[in-house]
Amino acid sequence: MFVKILLLEDNVSLAEIIQEMLEEKGYKIDWFEEGEEALFHSANGYDCFILDINVPNVNGLELLKEIRSREKKTPAIIISANIELETIQKAYGMGCNDFLKKPFYMYELERKIELLCSGLELMLLADGFSYELQEELLYDAKKNVVKLTPKESRFMRLLAKTPNKLVTIDAIEQYVWEGDEVSLSGIRSLVKRLRTKLSEKSIETQSYGYALLTL
Fold it and tell me: What is the DSSP string of 17-39?
């Protein structure tokens, strides 16, 4: 299922870069240069809104207000060169989910869209890695699926159930090895192998076990 995004941006060069980048990632983008036309089309079943503020006719905040009058939950990201605190507070007060200050890296926008708009339960990890909770898939920074062995997959699933919290050695033995006896060195070997497949910083060694660190 593709994610349908409305992009409101009057800077043609920037809009074309955003559109190309997101379409390469599989998103469907409808781009509008001015707010009145974007407002007319805004009720056409979008999964996400990316809105510049200073655009002709209806500005991005006015459009956001209209959107929120009929739908409260669809994610909206404001992109703007206006970094005045009053403007940022107003945007959040009107219901934006995130505010990205221009200029920004395309990677920043991509990650915010992944987090807010993908429709998937993505757990963001260090160095661009992510874990999709529903399908239980690990993705690298290029969005390729990382192949895991059955035990690595079970261990990753266990860690992801309680992110940033201790998973004890006993819990690992019971869940990953399904109660079969395993040595401490066997568990450490599993952790070492998994660390080679994602960012080493993502799995933290704690006193009596391990924790999956998320962003």
Answer: HHHHHHHHTT-EEEEESSHHHHH
